Amino acid sequence: MTDERCDLICIDAPRAEAIRERLLKGEAAQEAADRARALSDPTRLTLAAALREGEELCVCDLSWIAGRTQNLVSHHMRALRDRGVVRSRRDGKLVMYSLTPVGRSLLDVVMGEEARVKS
99: part of which helix (H) or strand (E)? Predict the structure, then answer.
């Protein structure tokens, strides 16, 4: 037996089918994978972590915190917003960003124990 495969084929069909029915499929699975991939970029992960600490921040603040240009930060924030990780709102001439509940949960999982200690 290898560590990855069974030597014996023995499917618990009712249990396996029940699990398969509860799993994400198709477009929902693709959207979840896209959200997870959104935080795979170090800059986007840094920006999301900054939002967790600051609750709501404008692009100017996020740019300074991440040490990146406002154009680059805006590009990354658009990617995070398009995937449902952050939301934005206009406040006069400022665009304010905050984590969505899904974004906060995903960030906590991605950051692991460190996220739970600081939160």
Answer: strand 94-99
- Residue type at 23 in one-letter notation: L
- Distance between start and end Cα atoms, the chain: 43
Burial 54-72 (b: 16+ CB within 10 A, else e): eeebbbebbbebbebeeee
Name all domains of the chain by residue range, CATH numbers in brackets: 27-118 (1.10.10.10)
CA angle 33, 37, 41 (to 5 degrees): 175
Structure tokens at 98: 């905050």
Q: Enumerate the β-bridge partners of residue 90.
A: 95
Quote the pTM value.
Answer: 0.74
- Shortest CA distance to 45 belongs to which of 61, 31, 62? 62
The count of other CB atoms within 10 Å of the CB of residue 36 is: 14
Across all residues in the chain, what is the average pLDDT?
85
Each residue's pLDDT tens digit, 66-117: 999 999 999 999 999 999 999 999 989 888 999 999 999 989 888 886 555 5
